[in-house]
C-alpha cells in the first residue's frame, strides 16, 4: 500500500507544460536530460570516454562536499546529463536537454537542482554511474530504451555518506519513455529511506510525471512522498524557469540553512 503525504502548508502549484514532442516518444525526446553513465552493450565513443572522466571527477567532488558538510538535513539528488550538441551563443537548445548559463552547459534537471539549492540550501548529489552513457541523442535514446526493456540496474559511481541524517530528499530526473531512468531505480533501491520525505522534481518532453510517483512509492513504501505539489517542468521551460523554481521551493517551507543553525 503506498504511503503518501500532501503538505497542507505548501504553496502548491504544479507546473505542467505542454511541450512539443513527437508522438509516442515523449520520454525519448528527453532522454538527453538524463545523467549519469549507464552500463551499455553498445560501444562507447571517444566523447563518452572523455565525459566519463569528467563525470567521475564531479562525482568525487560532490561526495567530498557532502562528507565535509555541516549537517544539512536536505539532500538534492538528481540524474542529469546534457547531450553532446552545439551550444555556442545560445542559452538553451530546442528539443534537447541543455541549458547554458554563464557559459556553462548543464543538463536540464541539473540546472533545476542548482536553482533549488540556491533557494533553500542543502547538499547537491549527482546520481552518476560507473559506465558512461553515449552523449549523442540517437544512441542515448536507444540505450535508455534497452535498459528499461531489460529492467537493468546500472552500478552507481558515487554514494551518499551519512544518508540517515537527511530528513528531506529532493529527487530530480527526466521522464524517459514514461518512466524514471534506470539509475534512479539504483539510487532508490540502495538506501533505506525510512520515513524521510521525498520531494520529486521532474523534467519532461510532453508526458509530465507519467506513473513515476507510483513507482517511487512502490520502491520506498515507508517514505512520505510529496504528491500534488511536486515540480513538473517541460524541457522547453527549463531555461527560463528560475523564478518558477524559486517560488516553488520557497513555498515548501523548508530551509536547510535554518536547520543547520538549529543543529549547531
Low-confidence segments, ≥5 residues, pLDDT <50? 1-32, 34-56, 58-69, 85-95
> Given this structure, which CATH class is correct?
Alpha Beta
How would a textbook summarize the main sheet?
7 strands, parallel
Q: Termini distance?
A: 38 Å
Word description of this protein:
This protein is α/β, with parallel strands linked by helices and 264 residues long. The chain has one domain: Flavodoxin domain (Rossmann fold), CATH 3.40.50. It is built from eight helices and nine strands. The protein has helices at 26-29, 46-67, 108-120, 137-150, 182-190, 212-219, 242-251, 256-263, and strands spanning 4-5, 74-78, 98-101, 104-107, 123-126, 168-174, 197-204, 224-226, 231-234. The strands form two sheets. Strands 1, 2, 5, 6, 7, 8 and 9 form a seven-stranded parallel β-sheet that branches. It has a two-stranded antiparallel sheet with strand order 3-4. Helix 5 links the parallel strand 6 (168-174) and strand 7 (197-204). Helix 3 (108-120) crosses helix 7. The longest helix is centred in the first third of the chain and has 22 residues, at 46-67. The chain is globular, with a radius of gyration of 17 Å. The chain starts with a strand and ends with a helix.
Task: Offer a concise description of the structure.
With 264 residues, the chain is an alpha/beta fold. The strands form two sheets. Strands 1, 2, 5, 6, 7, 8 and 9 form a seven-stranded parallel beta sheet that branches. The longest helix is centred in the N-terminal third of the chain and has 22 residues, at 46-67.
